[in-house]
Design goal:
- By secondary structure, the protein is an all-alpha fold.
- It is about 75% helix and about 0% strand.
- The longest helix has about 35 residues, at about 1-35.
- One of its GO terms (biological process) is transmembrane transport.
């Protein structure tokens, strides 16, 4: 018995050490971003690495936010991200309801296709997607970028919300129907309120995916006045090779703050929502 306890303790110590090493590897870039952002500008490019600034300085943030395109890029990000989240959630809700509460030919095939698309890497679909959108004159437009984001997050949204629909007993619908409720009334008054945690989880995933995306926005948008915030971060590097690293790190902090704050507020709902939606087949 004592030998078993000692062996378990050794295993726990080993697991904890591995977890700490992985945590340090993941958190070091974030720490270095914050460290560089708050350094005085003359210490940013110092040949001797400084793991803590001599004093906290907001000059890098002033230089980043003083860029004339910041507000415009922020506005562009809000337009495409909120548009993509709204469309993806509405389509995901109705698609999940149709695939779980109604019986029609091809339903299983649609589920298989959604799952297959979810497994494909986004970069593999980017060029075919660009060619189709270009033929439809949607490249270089807000609606084109919004639809590209919707296409990338919709399979995940459908799959998560579908799990919540499957968990709802059919007897609830039957009771509502006996009381005289029609299909639309059952959807909006009975089913949709019960799948709210799944809707929140999928909307957060859609928001983070669209907010952080760089590659799709770079491929689809050619007009710099329509760039989103991830593309704005590249503006701190000039073609001659010089980069304002201090301002770029400060801009990265500003860019990350909405997602971090949003995630900290709702992370409990996100984890429980994804877990609950994932266990229903």
């Amino acid at each position: 018995m004592a030998t078993t306890v000692r062996r378990r303790r050794r295993v726990n110590w080993g697991s904890n050490i591995v977890a700490i090493v992985f945590a340090l590897v993941w958190i070091f870039p974030v720490y270095w971003m914050l460290n560089t952002a708050f350094k005085p500008r003359d210490e940013v490019m110092s040949e001797t690495p400084k793991f803590w600034p001599s004093h906290l300085d907001a000059a890098n943030f002033v230089a980043a936010l003083a860029q004339s395109t910041f507000l415009r890029n922020l506005q562009n990000s809000l337009i495409v991200v909120l548009g993509a989240v709204l469309i993806a959630i509405v389509l995901g809700m109705f698609a999940s309801a149709a695939l779980t509460r109604f019986r029609f030919r091809g339903r299983k095939l649609i589920l298989v296709v959604i799952l297959a698309v979810q497994m494909l890497p986004a970069t593999a679909l980017l060029i075919p997607q660009f060619l189709v959108f270009n033929r439809l004159n949607l490249t270089g437009t807000y609606i084109g970028l919004i639809l590209a984001y919707v296409a990338s997050v919709l399979p995940f949204s459908v799959w998560v919300v579908r799990g919540f629909f499957l968990a709802i007993p059919v007897e609830l619908e039957e009771a509502a129907a006996i009381d005289g409720a029609g299909s639309w009334r059952i959807l909006f008054s009975v089913l949709f309120p019960l799948v709210t945690p799944g809707i929140i989880a999928s909307s957060i995933f859609a928001f983070i995916s669209a907010w952080n995306d760089y590659l799709t926005a770079y491929v689809f948008m050619s007009d710099s006045s329509m760039y989103t915030l991830p593309l704005w971060l590249t503006s701190f590097a000039t073609p001659n090779g010089s980069t304002d690293y201090g301002a770029q790190m400060a801009a990265s902090v500003v860019f990350s703050l909405p997602v971090v704050v949003f995630f900290l507020i709702i992370q409990r709902n996100l984890v429980s929502g994804i877990s609950a939606g994932a266990v229903k087949g």
